[in-house]
Amino acid sequence: MTRSLPVFVGLRYTRAQRENHFISFISLISMLGIALGVWALITVLSVMNGFERELRDRILGVAAHVTVSGVDGWLRDWPAISADAERRPEVAANAPYILGQGMVVRSPHVTGALIRGILPDREQGVSEFSAHMVAGRLSYLIPGEFGIVLGDALMRRLRLNVGDKVTLVTPQGQVTPAGLLPRLKRFTVVGTFSIGMYEYDSGLVLIHLEDAARLYRSDTRISGVRLKLTDVYEAPTLRKTLAREYGPDYYVSDWTREHVNFFRALNIEKRVMSIILFLIVSVAAFNIVSTLVMVVTDKRADIAILRTLGMSPRGVMGIFMAQGIVIGIIGTIVGAITGVLTSINIEALVPFFENLIGFKFFPPDVYVISDFPAEMHWRDVIIIVVISLLMSALATLYPAWRAARIQPAEALRFE
User: Cα(228)–Cα(65) distance, rounded to whole angstroms?
Assistant: First the structure.
């Protein structure tokens, strides 16, 4: 009982109806502040994880997990690379491609674009264009018929419809009696896609691999082979393996290197947001300091009596540490439960509030992602809860130390 006495008295102080209601109000504010900070931190991190996942999936729906190309930009023995990829268990699919720059012309409109030559049947295994087709199909790209598939934003910019004619102009010139002229070819629009990312929807066009070879005069050469993996996070490991096996004549890249700045910016933003929200938790936690300082002042006579009865300074410290930690525990638990429930149901809660107030938080005509995807990680929740409890415990040290230094004779002098 002796060891548990400080905890028992501290819990009694927490539950007791104080005559000083201002102290009770400050305690409640501290508890609510911790709960609000923990709730906001769990919810915001879950939403940011969801946005990162959504953007990653959209990028990987177009970009390759791993790309093998030649050091000079051209790959000559691509069938051997493709056959080697098919033998590897971690590779789900592979597809050759030709990538070049050019201009898409439909008088009087002209715009630059990336031109990708593909094999439609194999492209479906490494990308998600087929799932995002607004009109037409990739299979409509038939060699020799010079069909073309464009993003919907590019279609709107050029005022195009399926069946219209466009002209592709490549920077590689051809020598004529009149001088050096750009190479150009007429194509027929056979489809359009919408990935949901403006970068791709406004600047990428697809043509058949054989048509691209004719356009760029690459003969049997291609730009590279795109690999899709069963686990996207194995891409750096496979890249290093292929680079070591293929040698210096090949260039091997993966999605983490090609989009490293983008994902690094997301991680930095997440860290900064975490720091800002942790400051909210810390402010609420250190409100416990002011609460306990006032409680210590209010309970000076009680402390003196306990010390006179034989309680040690360490026991007095335990009383007020227990009281402050209880405030932190209750606030943290309430915030964690609320944050987890909000993160799990946020995709349903946001539309409800949008309909309630009649305002769209992320209009689809302005933002790439118009909903609130959430992905809660229990690791984040555990870290947030532990740090919140540590902050609450640290906030109790100074007031508890001051209480332990109170001398009984000084405290009872004016009682």
Answer: 5
Q: Label residue 277 exposed, middle or buried (CB < 10 Å: 0-12, 13-18, 19+).
A: buried
Collapsed DSSP state (helix, strand, coil) of residue 311: coil
The H or E element spanning position 143 is none
What pLDDT score was predicted for residue 141? 92
- 146-191: per-residue pLDDT in tens? 999 999 889 988 998 998 999 998 877 665 555 556 678 899 999 9
pLDDT at 299: 66
Query: Average pLDDT in the 230-236 region?
Result: 87
Question: Rounded CA gap, 261 and 273, in Å?
Answer: 18
Give dist(CA 32, CA 338) in Å, integer.
Answer: 12
**Vertex 384, ends 382 and 389: CA angle to 5°?**
95
Q: Would strands 204-208 and 109-118 be described as parallel, antiparallel, or unpaired? A: parallel
Termini Cα distance of the chain: 29
For the chain, give every domain's residue range.
5-58+262-412, 66-255
Query: What pLDDT is recorded for position 1?
Result: 44
Q: What is the DSSP string of 382-396?
A: HHHHHHHHHHHHHHT
Query: 36 and 280 in contact (C-beta within 8 Å)?
Result: yes
15-34 average pLDDT score: 66
